[in-house]
Amino acid sequence: xxxxxxxxxxxxxxxxxxxxxxxxxxxxxxxxxxxxxxxxxxxxxxxxxxxxxxxxxxxxxxxxxxxxxxxxxxxxxxxxxxxxxxxxxxxxxxxxxxxxxxxxxxxxxxxxxxxxxxxxxxxxxxxxxxxxxxxxxxxxxxxxxxxxxxxxxxxxxxxxxxxxxxxxxxxxxxxxxxxxxxxxxxxxxxxxxxxxxxxxxxxxxxxxxxxxxxxxxxxxxxxxxxxxxxxxxxxxxxxxxxxxxxxxxxxxxxxxxxxxxxxxxxxxxxxxxxxxxxxxxxxxxxxxxxxxxxxxxxxxxxxxxxxxxxxxxxxxxxxxxxxxxxxxxxxxxxxxxxxxxxxxxxxxxxxxxxxxxxxxxxxxxxxxxxxxxxxxxxxxxxxxxxxxxxxxxxxxxxxxxxxxxxxxxxxxxxxxxxxxxxxxxxxxxxxxxxxxxxxxxxxxxxxxxxxxxxxxxxxxxxxxxxxxxxxxxxxxxxxxxxxxxxxxxxx
Length: 491
Ligand code: ARG
Fold this sequence. Notes:
- The protein is 60% helix and 14% strand.
- It is of the alpha/beta class.
- It folds into four domains: 1-30; 32-128 and 231-273, Periplasmic binding protein-like II (D-Maltodextrin-Binding Protein, domain 2), CATH 3.40.190.10; 132-222, Periplasmic binding protein-like II (D-Maltodextrin-Binding Protein, domain 2, 3-Layer(aba) Sandwich); 280-490, Orthogonal Bundle (MetI-like fold), CATH 1.10.3720.10.
- A hairpin with a 3-residue loop joins strand 2 (50-51) and strand 3 (55-60).
- The longest helix is centred in the middle third of the chain and has 34 residues, at 283-316.
- The radius of gyration is 27 Å and the shape is elongated.
- Arginine binds next to strand 2.
């Protein structure tokens, strides 16, 4: 037992170190950054669209899109390169990871080129100067003047942002609460969970302009130049690409394009943004969400089932060295998968395996959930098979059937009847748990609801809608499964 444990951990260690080594060598490759983009014909920009006027979600010609001055900057860079811009939305704290693992070619997200970030990525020249403000409830005006007035209170800031770090460093007696999205922070502010939200001044102004109940106050943070300027981030070592982008950025600065064109254009979207905030208006977004949720669930249940059958057979293999090894491996797999959170597995497949093969988010999500589900299904099947009376195996074998034939034609059909209810549960669980893949940007229900939330600035309504939708999905599924279960009992 001890030996096995040592072996197991040795295996684990090799895996982990192998991956770390790969991440570091991937960056040291020669600089083909520019030619790579030119060959590909697209420039993928990662951004966190919760930050008007930098980037935000707006309905353009009936379609929800990411707009804002950063998108205009991205378009300019892409155009000067002679390629097409593709915008990929994700949470702010995933952006630099996505850049380092090649999921995106650049990050434009109102990002400050701080020395700490410079250690891991390269930055272009700056295209804009911001400065920090704090958004508060208008009713609290007069109570809070700047960052120092929040003693005994809570300031919110986006996780991974400079505001989060500075709020922690430069306030005392104040709780700093981090959340992944600025829109959620604003909701927390409005429901008085927190008393202020630190963000860039232009964003503060945009939120205030959009919402009569909010006000902005100066932050009075002590900031260095790199803390207040915005730059485009590129993967470390992509000097050729950075140099090329700098030409575009320099022109933007020289001709004052941000103030003259990009910001006014963004302002227009901000105004049209709140015209129709009825949830019915967004039925298409929710429908897409349902579609993806179902695709992920059905595919994962299918592949998970196949994997589960294989794993359970491997776990029951007896005899010989090969079979023992197989059994041991399958057991280790099941234990490992069940012992780690699905969320971590999803991120590992997307970002980690992404270093070897660059899988799209949807595929990564399906793979991760199938791998996860397989481990659970294996256990259900094993239980189901074990519950089939041993006498039936003996009867089949004495009729001259091989052990494989016995398994396939005698045991499995009977076992399936026992397993069915658990499989049904697994299906229903996956409808709900597939929501985890929203973190890697798959357009399932949660992801869509987040888009609707940032598009409408309404926090609760979209959540209520998807709650009902999830229930309709799981309830219908369980009725259908029950029907088949009853039919099986009749046989
Ligand atoms: N400027 C801050 C930073 O670099 C926050 C930027 C937040 N951007 C966003 N799109 N939410 O950390």
